Amino acid sequence: MNKKNIIFSSFILLMISLFSLDLFAQVTLPSINMGLKSTEDPKEIVSAIKIIMALTVFTLAPGILILMTSFTRIIIVLSFVRQALGTQQMPPNQLLVGLALFITLFIMSPFFTKVNTDALQPFLNGKISQDLAFERGMAPMRKFMFNQTRQSDLQLFLNLSNSPQPKTRADVSSMTLIPAFVISELKTAFQIGFIIYLPFLVIDMVSASVLMAMGMMMLPPVIISLPFKIMLFVFVDGWALLVGSLVKSFGL
């Protein structure tokens, strides 16, 4: 870059800075005061507690999303598909996470709606207590997790916790149910990933055999097999088939 370009770029940045300062000088910004004060109004205390609880929920939201919903199975299967295709970073991670997030919202929408109707709204309106709201809110999520958890995985954590054998589902604590649900989702996702890998593995083996028969030992088989794998995935409408099978795998 020559001196003229440097001077011109500096001039443009200077003008933008001066314009921004002048613009902000004409705008009156509201002041924000933070502090502690004593109060005798119970409503103010309840409002502060609600704000703290909301911030806590927002902080724990990623963990709740990953550990208590269908997100785990979906993102693992989508990652397996990308690895089986051999397209490296295509689709990119942001796209896979976004797709997994919206599929999760689609699958979990009936449960989230029930949580909002039975627990969140009554609690915000002051009709039920915090403990009852938590119990009602966990009920739909526990139902979903129980339906997706294998009995062997649940029994494993019951044995590890040295807890008595539960007679009903209500006797199983959420601290035992959640890790059992997670490892069940991992096992299911890996099973689906194994099935996804098989047809692409066959294409890789055929490509490697053909190249070896032709004496082209130095040419990587991945370069030859990649277009055929993409063509196969497109011809069978792979994304629609994959997403449809994933949603159906939850039995909803």
Molecular shape: elongated
The class by helix and strand makeup works out as mainly alpha
Strand content: under 5%
SS elements, strand count: 0
Order of helices and strands: HHHHHHHHH
What's the short story on this structure?
It is built from 9 helices and no strands. It is mainly alpha-helical and 252 residues long.
Descriptors:
mainly alpha; 9 helices; disordered N terminus
Structural commentary:
With 252 residues, the protein is mainly alpha-helical. The chain has helices at 3-25, 42-68, 71-85, 93-124, 130-148, 151-160, 174-213, 221-235, 238-249. The radius of gyration is 27 Å and the shape is elongated. The model is unreliable at 3-16 and 18-27 (pLDDT under 50).
